[in-house]
């Protein structure tokens, strides 16, 4: 099933079957883990659904919002939201939202991603209990 | 402090005394107490790093909260997830004002993400800490692969072109908005 996507007079075709399955799987994983799915949904829409990045920036955020809102409500009604922890985390996140973009301007995004990838691999291996990881 | 042991079976409230004083605080749902500045600084540092690399902080924050502070994984997921709601909402509002959201695409994929978001927290109830760590570990390795792939020359080349078009559209959207507000202002004065 192809969905015709219009963006500022340009028209694109998006494969909604892949979008639906991919979006569903990402949403299950991200709401299970408790994080936003941005870094997965953007590649899904650009690489797999074949849409250019400028069409995706806003719409991917809207798609993720559905997941975050539903996931947050579900956790809240399951009684798993610690309000104090939430407030502490939110203060840190909001402050980061002001500081982050200022630092980002001075750094090379490619190298930031490389460093981040190494850190994330380390953390991932540690979570997987791979032996010989300090 | 009042604690009820089981939700289903009614039990007598028990009285406990504790000697926890600020900055050490007790997280009522998580059921542990730590110095509150630890998680606060951790959240700030990780989220700053997240903003810089263009991905939220939850990926790194959640496993660290579990590994360092031993908070229960269900509570970590349930408390960290809502923190991004407001930044997402404001982002959507800003993008929609300049006509940068395709509602058909966003809602089309969003509906399936809504169903996923309904099931994920339910699954979380049945997942043990070890299983949670395993799933998260796999997700992190996939994310790392995605990030590394985004630093390959071919991807950077393609991304640069599309980013340039994006900037062009953003400029146009801004101009269109200014024109509109100007017209609005004039009619208001008239």
From TrEMBL, chain A:
InterPro entries in the record: TM_pro_TauE-like (IPR002781), TSUP/Inactive_protease-like (IPR051598)
Protein's cellular compartments: Cell membrane; Membrane
Keywords: Cell membrane, Membrane, Transmembrane, Transmembrane helix
One Gene Ontology CC term in the entry: plasma membrane
Main location: membrane
Topology class, membrane: Multi-pass membrane protein
Transmembrane spans: 16-41, 53-77, 83-103, 115-133
Membrane recorded as keyword: yes
Recorded family membership: Belongs to the 4-toluene sulfonate uptake permease (TSUP) (TC 2.A.102) family.
Protein's recorded name: Probable membrane transporter protein
């Amino acid at each position: 099933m192809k969905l015709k996507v219009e963006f500022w007079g340009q028209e694109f075709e998006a494969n909604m079957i892949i979008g639906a399955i991919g979006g569903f799987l990402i949403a299950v994983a991200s709401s299970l883990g408790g994080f936003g799915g941005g870094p997965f949904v953007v590649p899904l829409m650009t690489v797999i659904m074949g849409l250019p990045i400028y069409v995706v920036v806003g719409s991917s955020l809207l798609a993720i919002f559905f997941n975050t809102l539903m996931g947050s409500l579900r956790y809240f009604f399951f009684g798993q939201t610690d309000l104090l922890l939430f407030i502490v985390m939110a203060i840190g996140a909001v402050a980061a939202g002001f500081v982050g973009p200022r630092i980002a301007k001075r750094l090379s995004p490619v190298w930031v991603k490389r460093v981040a990838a190494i850190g994330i691999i380390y953390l991932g291996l540690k979570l997987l209990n791979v032996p010989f990881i300090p | 402090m009042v604690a009820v042991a089981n939700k289903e079976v009614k039990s007598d409230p028990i009285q406990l005394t504790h000697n926890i004083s600020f900055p050490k605080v007790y997280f009522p749902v998580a059921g542990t107490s730590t110095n509150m500045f630890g998680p606060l600084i951790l959240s700030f540092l990780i989220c700053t790093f997240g903003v810089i690399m263009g991905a939220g902080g939850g990926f790194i924050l959640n496993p660290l909260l579990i590994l360092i502070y031993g908070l229960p994984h269900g509570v970590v997921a349930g408390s960290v997830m809502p923190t991004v709601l407001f930044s997402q909402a404001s982002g959507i509002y800003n993008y929609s004002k300049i006509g940068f959201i395709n509602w058909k695409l966003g809602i089309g994929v969003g509906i399936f993400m809504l169903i996923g978001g309904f099931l994920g927290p339910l699954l979380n109830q049945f997942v043990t800490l070890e299983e949670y760590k395993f799933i998260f570990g796999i997700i992190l390795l996939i994310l790392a692969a995605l990030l590394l792939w985004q630093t390959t020359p071919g991807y950077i080349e393609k991304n640069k072109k599309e980013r340039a078009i994006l900037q062009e559209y953003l400029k146009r959207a801004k101009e269109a908005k200014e024109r509109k507000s100007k017209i609005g202002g004039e009619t208001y004065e008239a």
